[in-house]
Amino acid sequence: MRQHRRPYDPYAKYRPYILRWDGSVILSVLPSTLITTIISGIVCLLYEYYKINISVPATLTPVFSIVVGLLLTYRTNTAYDRYDEGRRLWSKMIVAIRGILRHILVDLEPKSPEDLQEQKAAINLLIGFAFSTKHYLREEGTECDDLIPFISNINTTIPDFELLALQEAKVIEKERKEKRNLRSKIFKWIKNKIFKHKEQQPNNFNLPLTITLYLTSYVEEQFAKKNISNSTAKIFHLNLNALIDSLSGFERILRTPIPLAYAIHLSQTVWVYCIGLPFQLVSMIHYVTIPLVLIVSFILFGIETIGEEIENPFGYDDNDLDLDDLCNVIKIEFETITKYSRPKIEKWLYDQTHQPSYDDIIMDSEPSGISTFDSTSEHGDEEHIEEHIDMR
């Protein structure tokens, strides 16, 4: 697991992008770029030194350029759309989590220690939803140090959850025994190779969905106790539906990548173009072909690699969404808000130090265009109406 990277500060001054190394794809495209550059050097050497005519007509370059450009454009646009959708879904999830927290703190007043304990457990589950979603999208399981404190009160009988740790322990112990037993290894090899048998591995349990069940149970319990109204319960359920909708959107991005055939064909097309480029340029620009192929290869392979990185925005790449920082923001935010009780109107609205005097505003300001009737005048209404008629 990669270390947590420094969060991006939009107000900090950074080096110019042309001089930045971190966050770029230079290291990823360097091997491919060097290979095509070496090939171009060999082509130039054969053509210039050994006088072997291996050039091809340069008219093919515009045709190939259009094809490669269209493929790369589709690749990057599709990948960025997935990245942008993941960012939007995460923002939607945060809105729903904050909405649930707000109604828990404002609409639910703890009347007993049990109510306070239930409230704290529900808030922990909200934080746990964000952290569990992060680990679920990264397929890291449920035994994570930053997640366990928020879901420790869950004790469910749903299959594959309560016994998940035991299942993983059994799998690990079984693998250890098989390593020590040569006959077991041979038997397993025979089953996999001859009978095409594969053992079923434990699934990546959908813990976020389970947390929504617990939160729904909490809302229904509060509604049954008449601690919340029907309209408030509907708002809770709408926010819970938004959490499930966001989770389904995350799964759509994670489970439905760009078709493999398209990715393979694009990579092969870029390689064919970069390898064939020196054969088309050597007769025109000679040794200048080498640096030109280097630049072109770096650009094309870089665009392809960027598309591969942002296609799944939930990993640990520098260009992925910083889910660790986003989850920590929720955690710190919730810890700060829950330190204080909900604001009561009598403590801030009717405090003279916090409320400006309306009479002072009327006395110090110019007369407004809004007409008011003087109730102390006996003929206030009639005079005002007559004035209005005369003005017309």
From TrEMBL:
Cross-referenced Pfam families: Bestrophin_2
GO molecular function, one term: chloride channel activity
Skewed-composition ranges (Basic and acidic residues): 376-392
Keywords for this protein: Cell membrane, Ion transport, Membrane, Transmembrane, Transmembrane helix, Transport
The keyword Repeat is annotated on this UniProt entry: no
Signal peptide span: none
Chain segments carrying region Disordered: 372-392
Annotated GO CC locations: plasma membrane
Subcellular location: Cell membrane
Membrane topology: Multi-pass membrane protein
Spans traversing the lipid bilayer: 21-48, 54-74, 285-303
PANTHER family per the UniProt record, alphabetical: UPF0187 PROTEIN YNEE (PTHR33281), VOLTAGE-DEPENDENT ANION CHANNEL-FORMING PROTEIN YNEE (PTHR33281:SF19)
Protein name (record): UPF0187-domain-containing protein
Organism: Gigaspora margarita
